[in-house]
Design brief:
Shape: globular
Strand order of the largest sheet: 3-2-1-4-5
Strand content: 5-15%
CATH class of the largest domain: Mainly Alpha
Order of helices and strands: HHHHHEHEEEHEH
Radius of gyration: 19 Å
Number of helices: 8
CATH architecture of the largest domain: Up-down Bundle
CATH superfamily of the largest domain: dinb family like domain
């Protein structure tokens, strides 16, 4: 997917989120984000839209020293869905006015403005799934979006320790590897990891990283296979890897170690 597609998908995911919570009881607990209600979840997503939009407007070149931004948060929680709609519309305006290929600081790999659009997309998508799960709705995630989301997550996870400190423990005394493979990918065996629906993570004494040097075909110490949408939710900690949804191969202790420290 490209930045324009990411921007369009942010709008679509925000609209789907609003449609999910609009008629719901916003005091409903969200089991996949413990301690939060649907109101908290909606406030969080709208705040992300407004905060990332402010970063894009300023096109920051170094880590921000403050997260203060005018959220224009409604006084009453029942207005949060409409406020999120406005937040998403504001983000769309900022995307349209921004050169998304412009250099910009980001906490992940891609040091360009487009990083924040892609990041906003998957923040919105995963929390839309959270809202649906809270209401007993089975989330539907488009295959192309799920594959792109898996790639975005695994690419940037090695840089997430400032807000996901457990990831600093994703290391092993000797080199080990974990493969994640989509069982519903089309055209298997072609393209890069994302195109193949296949990613290899290397764990080392000094940390871990996504392997992107053309060695994806080497054997892994452990492998997780499953549908792309389910794999995306699994990586974000919304699914249990021990459930029957996934095929687990190889070193189970290594997989347990990964899932105990990787979600954010």
């Amino acid at each position: 997917m490209n930045p324009a597609q990411h921007g369009a998908a942010v709008a679509a995911e925000a609209a789907a989120f609003v449609a999910t919570v609009k008629a719901a009881d916003l005091s409903t607990p969200v089991p996949t984000t413990p301690g939060w209600t649907l109101a908290d979840l909606t406030q969080h997503v709208g705040s992300v839209h407004r905060w990332f939009s402010e970063l894009l407007r300023r096109r920051i070149q170094q880590p921000p020293t403050s997260r203060e931004v005018d959220l224009r948060l409604p006084e009453h929680a029942d207005a949060f869905p409409d406020w999120l709609t406005e937040s998403a519309a504001e983000a769309a305006e900022v995307f349209a006015a921004t050169d998304l290929d412009a250099p910009m600081w980001a906490w992940g790999v891609d040091q360009h403005a487009r990083f924040w659009v892609r990041r906003m997309l998957f923040e919105t998508l995963v929390h839309r799934a959270d809202a649906e799960l809270a209401l007993g709705i089975a989330p539907h995630i488009d295959h192309a979006l799920a594959v792109d989301g898996i790639d975005e997550f695994l690419t940037n996870l090695p840089y997430a320790s400032p807000f996901a400190p457990l990831t600093a423990r994703l290391r092993t005394p000797e080199h080990r590897s974990i493969r994640f493979h989509c069982t519903d990918v089309e055209g298997e065996g072609e393209g890069d990891g994302a195109g193949r629906g296949d990613w290899l993570i290397s764990l080392r004494p000094d940390g871990f990283a996504l392997v992107a040097d053309g060695t994806e075909d080497r054997l892994a110490d452990a492998t997780v296979r499953g549908p792309s949408a389910e794999l995306l939710l699994l990586l974000y900690g919304r699914r249990d890897h021990a459930s029957g949804t996934f095929q687990l191969l190889g070193d189970r202790e290594l997989l347990d170690h990964w899932f105990a420290h990787s979600a954010f």
